[in-house]
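Usage example:
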Amino acid sequence: MKRIFNFLSPIKHLGDKNYSIVFPLLGTLSAVIILEFYAYIILGEPEAITTSAIFIFISLIIYFSFREGRRGGFIASIITISYYLYIIASREYQGERFVRGIETTVILAIIYFFLAAVIGWLKEVIDKLIEREANEKKRLETIFQQLPVGVVIADKNRKIVQANNRLNEIIGVKVPIGFQLGEGLIVSSISNGKPSTSDDDPLLQSLKTGKVVSNREFTITKNDHLVHLQVSAAPIKDRHNQTLAAASIISDITEQKNLEIRKDDFVNMASHELKTPLTSLKLYTEVMHRRLTKKNDKQLADIIKRAQDQLNRLQKLVDDLLDVSRIQTGKLTYTKERFNLSELVNETVEVLGETANSHNIIIEKTPNLQVHADRFRIYQVVTNLITNAIKYSPSNSEIRIQLIKNDSHALVRITDQGIGIPKEEHDKIFERLYQVFKTADKKSPGFGMGLFISKEIIERHKGKIWVESKLNEGSTFCFTLPLAKRQVRT
Ligand code: ADP
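Running the assembly step on the lines above writes:
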C-alpha cells in the first residue's frame, strides 16, 4: 500500500529527475478509455461527460506536470486535446455547436499547455535545486569525513547531530549521535589539572553563549596512553544571528605536546647544568676584580668587569629559562610576606644602578602600599618592566613610575617614551618566547621570556598585568596586586 502511495505521490518524486513518458501516456489514455466506457456503457449517454471531462483532465495535466515535468504535462495535454477532437467528431457536432466545440477546445488547449509548461518548469527547477543541495551536502560530507581533525556538531537543543570518523579515531570511542550535552561526558578528561565536567565542554559553552571558544586543552586516556586534545568550538548562526547549532573541532596534539615536554626537560636540565659553573665563574671573576683593583691594574680590572657583565646577562638568561620551565611544570613556588610595594620599587631602581643611569627615571611621590606577596618575585617583575622600558626607549629619555592606591588594589604604572607596541601585539607579548617583529633590531637582544614570567607571577598573586601603547608613542606597562588586608598608616 505504502509503495503504491509512494509511486503515485508527486511529492515523493521531487528531486527525482528520471521523468517517465510512459506513465503520463498510459495514465491519460486510461482516463480516456474509462470515461468513454462510463459514457457509452454505464450511462448510455455519450454527451453526459463533456463538462466533467474538463475537470478530470485538468487535474491529470497538473498531476503529470508536477510528477514528470513539462514533457509529462505536454503528453497529457496532447492526449486530452485529441480526445476533445475525437468527442467533437464522434458525437457528430454540427453548425454552431461544432464551431463552439472547436473554439472551446482551442482555448482549453492553450490553458492546458500553459499549465503544463509552468507547473512542469517549476517541478524541474525544484528538482535541480534539490539535486544541487544533495550534491553540496555530499561534497561537504566527504570533506567532513576526510578532515584530519575531529569534528562534532550539536543542534540548539544540545543534542549531537553529526560527528566524523576522525573524531572516533582520536578519542577511541564512537560518538553517540543524539547524545545530550550537559548530561555527563562521552570520555572522561582532565583540563587545567582537574577532572573536567560537562560544563567545561567548549561545544556546550559555545551553544550557551553564542561565542567562539578557542584552543582549550584536555587530556584523555586511550588504550592506557595519555592523549592531549586541543578543542575549539564556534556557533553556527542563521541570517537573523540566532544560534542554530555549534561545531567543535578537536585536534590530537599529543605528539606536539610530547615534543614540547621533551624540549622543556632538555632546557631545564641544560639550565641546571649551566647554573653551577656559572656561579663559580662569577665568584672567580669577583675575586680577580677585587685583587686587580687592589693592585691598581685598571686595564685588566675593566676587562674583568666587562666579563662580569656578560656573566650577569648569562645568569639572567639561565634563571629565566629555569623559571619558564618551572611555570610549564607548575613548579614555580611562592613565599609570601607582607611588605611595602613603594619601598620595593625604590630599591629596584637603586639596584639597577648603572643600567638605570642612562635614563631619567622618575618615581612619583608614592603612598605606602602594603601587599602580601612573594617579595623576590615581585622585585623580578618590577626589574623586568623597568629594564624593558630602558631597553626599548632612547637614552636620556624619561621613564615615569607611578604607584596608585585603587580600591583594594595597588596599581603600578611604568611609562616610557620608547618605540611603543602596535595594538595587535598587546596580548601576544605576554606569550612565551614572543617578541615584536618590528622591534627585532633592538640594541639589547632578549628572548621573550620576561613578560611571560611576569604575567604568570602577577596572575598567581590574583593581580592583572597589561600594556597601554601605540607604535612609536611609548608604552605604559601596568600591573595590579591586591593590597594586604590591613594597611599600615603613614
Ligand atoms: P625580551 O627579553 O625580548 O625583552 P619580554 O618578554 O620582556 O622579552 O618582552 C617581549 C617583547 O615585548 C619584547 O621582545 C619587545 O618586543 C616587547 N616589549 C616589551 N617591553 C617593551 C617596551 N617597554 N617597549 C616596547 N616594546 C616592548
